[in-house]
Description:
Chain A is mainly β and 114 residues long.
Amino acid sequence: DTAVSQTPKYLVTQMGNDKSIKCEQNLGHDTMYWYKQDSKKFLKIMFSYNNKELIINETVPNRFSPKSPDKAHLNLHINSLELGDSAVYFCASSSSGRSTDTQYFGPGTRLTVL
Amino acid sequence: GDSVTQMEGPVTLSEEACLTINCTYTATGYPSLFWYVQYPGEGLQLLLKATKADDKGSNKGFEATYRKETTSFHLEKGSVQVSDSAVYFCALCQGAQKLVFGQGTRLTINP
């Protein structure tokens, strides 16, 4: 009974391709997030959704498009992949999006663009 | 904008040594503060948190105290184990409800 799950765990693809990463949480949380971890382990917020509504869009190229079909899912679609998109992408969720809430992270998706 | 600065790593210690990983922050308001841990090949797990000044978070023998006067949230453990080897991230959250992370500190404990 994984709390926050992501698929796939690994994704290897060519430059220019389009790919999607899926995220699901079974915690009943209202808020979900995407973070990017670069090769130096630095983590940065990309997006957050609260009740399927986009709350944070952190100057991410518009090749990245999040979609939240319902509160339990937040998917990330990436068009025209570039070498610099190679990273580990983490999905997270929190109960209400308050600053005091704990965010629960998925296991990550390692994207490699060749 | 808000930021978090952590002690540069990597840190290598022997088992049973004392650990301190320094963390300071810059924020306009009163953020909540967190330590997350990332074990090899895994996602991040919350280690501990503190949501207001002078609060002490603790878990698994680790402690950190929210010091508003020094804008710090240093992570401490009295006796580390090999299983504590991981990357540790200090983070803050306020207002915009996004976690702002430090650069991470890689900790290796040798038997």
